[in-house]
Amino acid sequence: CEKEPSSYMWIYILLGSMLRGIGETPITPLGISYLDDFTKEENVPVYVACLHTVAMMGPMFGFLLGSLCAKLYVDIGFVDPGSITITPQDSRWVGAWWLGFLIGGATSFLSGIPFCFLPKSLKKPEEAKKDKTSRGLLDNTGAAGNKLSPENTKPRKWSVMLKGKYFYNSLKKVLGNRMYFTFLCCSLLQFSSFIGFVTYKPKYMEQQYGQSTSKSNFLIGVTSLPPVGLGIFLGGLIMKKYKMGIIAATKFSLTMSFLSYAVSLLHFFVGCDNHVVAGMTVSYE
Q1: In angstroms, rounded to a whole number, what is the distance separating the alpha carbons of residues 47 and 32?
Q2: An example Gene Ontology cellular component term from the record (predicted)?
Q3: 63 vs 55, 69, 93, 226, CA distance in Å?
Q4: pLDDT confidence of residue 124
């Protein structure tokens, strides 16, 4: 066999994914914290549900974009389309996977520009000044027992924050909260199952149902993700309507998770027979 030249393209994809993760991470914690601090308590579930619903719309459009890119040949713009003799249904077909990265990256860059024009400091509403601020939350938990002096409000360096006791004490207090730790473990299980489902379902549809990569991505984007976004939004409306507290919200989450688990058991009764492959599923004779 002739050794093919190795490609280092995966390094660029790795670095790009790291930068994307760094850029999108602050949206969830800081966005939810902002909504909790600057809105009325009964409206927080709806606003947070809207935030997560919009976040689910992104992967849906991503699958649709991937479906479009998969129909285009990988070397589009560099070869004559008339010279291509294979179709997307051919197993040798490779779609323009790189085109989605360019479109997604340019869109992310343009959508980030308006953040540069936001004011440096925002005015808090009168009803949110007392106990809905992050400082009030820290005071109630005992993390900021002493009053903050001008010296303590100065920005600290990362090295000082990581070396000092403040970081470790805060981390210990957060992980020591049984409700938060249980919720964290539950979220890990839910996201792990959801990611596995979304990752392997397109390939399953290709192998078992003979669909093309383009059509598989299109069906996933249309059928799988919109119901999740709709469920998140309806959950926020239900929490607002019945004004659920922590205990009521926990019972509501437990009930919905149990029903989801029960319905998911039906997947065990749905499946297809394996393809007949000589030497694997049947003998050569």
Answers
A1: 9
A2: basolateral plasma membrane
A3: 14, 10, 18, 12
A4: 65
Give CA–CA dist 43/239, Å, rounded.
9
Q: Are 44 and 68 in contact (CB under 8 A)?
A: no
Nearest Cα to Cα of residue 94 among 74, 66, 113, 120: 74
Q: Name residue, tokens 């019945």.
A: 242
Other C-beta atoms lying within 10 Å of the C-beta of residue 215: 19
C-alpha distance from residue 43 to each of 38, 50, 130, 243 (Å) = 10, 11, 18, 9
User: If we measure between CA atoms, which residue out of 254, 231, 259, 258 comes closest to residue 244?
Assistant: 254
What is the DSSP secondary structure assignment for residue 120, as one 8-state letter? S
What letters, b where the CB count within 10 A reaches 16 and e where it falls short, cover 161-193? eeeeeeeeeeeeeeeeeeeeeeeeeeeeeeeee
**What pLDDT is attached to residue 148?**
44
Show Cβ contacts of residue 190 under 8 Å, excluding neighbours closer than 6 positions: 257
Consecutive sets of 10 residues in the chain, 285 residues long: mean pLDDT of each?
A: 73 88 81 80 84 82 86 86 82 86 89 82 58 47 45 55 70 86 85 79 82 82 81 88 86 89 85 79 85
The one-letter amino acid at 126 = E
